[in-house]
Amino acid sequence: MDAYLLFGHILRCKMVPKSQQHEDLFKGANRRFSKVPWNKMEGRKLLQPRTEAAWEKRVEKEEKRRSSRAEKLKALGYEYDGPKIKAPAAALEGSKVAGAVENGDGDASEGDKALATQEAAGEEVESEAVKDIRAPKGKTGRKKATRKGKKDEAEE
Question: What does the pLDDT read at residue 14?
Answer without folding.
Answer: 94
